[in-house]
Amino acid sequence: MAYRMIVLDLDGTLTNRDKVITPRTKEALMKLKSQGGTIVLASGRPTYGVMPLAKELGLTEDGGYILSFNGGRIIECKTGETVFAKELPVTSNKKIIALAREHGVNILTYEGDCIITPDPGDIYVKKESDINKLEVRRVENFDQYVDFPVVKFLLLDDGDYLALVEPKVKAALGRDYSVYRSEPHFLEVLPKGIDKAASLERLLTRLNMTKDEMIACGDGYNDLSMIQYAGLGVAMENAVLPVKNAADYVTLSNNDDGVAHVIEKFMLS
């Protein structure tokens, strides 16, 4: 069956080390779009942080989709319609914030187009801010302030330490939450059933397509579900080992136009 949709993680996949889309990759995506292919940008970033790349690729004019917050939101780019949205229950906010404090790690979430956190000087908060071009706002009494629904929390620390914290947070929160690392230093906490694969399944149903018509490309732990789910799961050469092991195909790195290579090999007529 011909592949009609390509789903792309952003950081480490679609963009190179400088966080830009290279000319060859952009050209391949434009050609795919002109032949009727569907482009989906699937990222742990908030919607605001994905939109500039969607605009650069012309998805806001020609159509395409954003899966932001690791699938917590699905946005139709041309109309701006929110196709799907799910937030954490407000009653869980204090518990999640308390877990961050218990394990001595920083925490952030999002309010409007701002990152909010008790410690804005954290180097990992700066990374999230730089990636998404979002302003950072310090919030005192964070557990009291965040009394509204949020899509996700991000726990932040050194990757080796966060690897030890991850199973403890999973055990404390139980089955009603999705907890996984999108980067070694980012531990995501989302509602149960929210990951890239689950939201792609929702999108495919809406578009009357099957997973066999979909290619998914990624490099990080949060891409594992969609790479296992897709008709063709593709790992970047720079991907973490579990993603490479799960993939049907390993392409070139994000610095060597790995996405363009996949489109040219498997999709362009």
Assigned CATH superfamily of the largest domain: HAD superfamily/HAD-like
Query: What is the strand tally?
Result: 14
User: What is the highest CATH level, the class of the largest domain?
Assistant: Alpha Beta
Q: What number of structural domains do the residues give?
A: 2
Q: Roughly how many Å apart are the termini?
A: 13 Å
Structural Rg = 18 Å
> CATH topology of the largest domain, anyone?
Rossmann fold
Q: Which class do the helix and strand fractions yield?
A: alpha/beta
If you average the pLDDT, what whole number results? 96
Q: Helix segment count?
A: 11
Order of strands in the sheet with most strands? 5-4-3-2-1-12-13-14
User: Secondary-structure element order, as H and E?
Assistant: EHEHHEEEHEEHEHEHEEHEHEHEH
Strand content: 15-25%
* Main beta-sheet strand count, sense and barrel state: 8 strands, mixed
Poorly predicted segments: none
Provide the helix percentage: 25-40%
Outline type: globular
What is the CATH architecture assignment of the largest domain? 3-Layer(aba) Sandwich
Protein name: Cof subfamily protein (Haloacid dehalogenase superfamily)/HAD superfamily hydrolase (TIGR01484 family)
GO molecular function: magnesium ion binding; phosphatase activity
GO cellular component, one term: cytosol
Organism: Hungatella effluvii
